[in-house]
Structures are given as C-alpha cells and as structure tokens.
Amino acid sequence: MLITKNLDTPDESRSFEHGELAAVSLGGVTFARAAFRPGWRWSTDMKPLVGTDSCQISHQAVVVSGRLRVKMDTGEERELGAGDAHVVGPGHDAWVVGDEPCVILDFAPDVEESSESTSEGSGGVPTHVAACPCGVTFQIESDEVLDHLVAAVQEHALGSHDHKVTREHILEELKSPSVA
Q1: Residues 6+ apart with CB under 8 A from 8
Q2: Sign of the four-CA dihedral 155, 157, 163, 169
Q3: Residues 69 and 129 in one domain
Q4: Number of domains comprising the chain
C-alpha cells in the first residue's frame, strides 16, 4: 500500500483567532497540522468555545517549529520546542511561548481502526470508544472517567466543527453497536 495526501489540501480545516488547523485521514490515521500564532492560549482561545476548564483531548504529536508551554491540571509543566515528540493526556492548558508561531503535527487513529463502541480493555475492563465522523476517536478504559470522554467529544465537536453535542447524545451513541 502507498497512499498520500497533503496537509496543504486538507480533508478538514479550521481557522480561529490565533491559528489554524489542517487535517487529512489516510491509512487508519488522522494527521493534523496546527499552527498557533503568538498570543494563542487554550484557556483563552478554546475554553470559551468548548466549556471545559482545560483541554480534555489526548495528543500524540511533535513540535515542528516554535515553542509551546503545557501545564497539566496536576500542576506538572513542560516547555516544548522544535523536534520534541510528546504525549499529553486530557486535563491541560497550553500556550505559545515567544514571538514565533508554533507548528505542531498531531496523530490520532481513525474511526475505522475501532471495531466496536464497547470492547474488552486491559484487564477485562470495558473500553468505550466515541468517534467523530471526521476520524478523531476518543477512548476510555473505565466508566469512572466517562465524564472526561463526554467533555473531550464536546470540546472536539465545538472547537473543530462548531457543533454542540449534548451529553445525552454522546451516551446514546456509546450504547449503539453501529458506532465505530
């Protein structure tokens, strides 16, 4: 198999006050390029749109250029620069450091890679997977963090698609065996 797409002609794109996002899906993966301009901060630019106190999306990404500071809800903080690969879990704020834009490449499994809305997770614990039609998926391995899954889906729907999704709709979709 050899397939390609270019982020300069994305499947999905979004612009906001201090940046823009371009994403393509191929080979079971969504590749996204986020370009944040100086002044961008999640808690300032995104929080009002998504309604959560911090970003509830997990990121597996690499910084291409610029600098980004990330602060977890736990208080742990790191500054990332060009070449820094990172995994950042739900519950964080982030902001551009300095006068240079920060460009990040983010990677996430596509919807097709998730075969069921509920399956057996590690240790036999049910795993819930919520999927957006654009290809972004959200997964938890315990009902104890279901509220985080709901918040992440709501944040993504509003921030990426300008679409409000109710908690009830998300929970109903999780029950449906057709959700992949």
Answers
A1: 22
A2: negative
A3: no
A4: 2
Beta-carbon count within 10 A of 9 CB: 9
Residue 180, in any domain of the structure: no
Residues 114 and 96 in one domain: no
The residues pairing with 85 across neighbouring beta strands, listed in sequence order, are 62
Question: Both ends of the chain: CA-CA distance in Å?
Answer: 23
For the segment 103-143, what is each residue's pLDDT rounded down to a tens digit? 999 998 764 444 333 344 444 444 677 777 666 777 776 66
The helix or strand, by DSSP H or E, that contains position 80, with its residue range, turns out to be strand 77-81
Does the predicted model carry a pTM greater than 0.85? no
**Would residue 5 count as lying in a domain?**
no
Six-digit token string for 171: 């929970």
Do residues 117 and 89 both lie within one domain? Answer: no
- Domain membership of residue 154 (yes or no) is yes
Return the pLDDT at 37: 97
**At 177, is the pLDDT very low, low, confident or very high (cuts 50, 70, 90)?**
very low
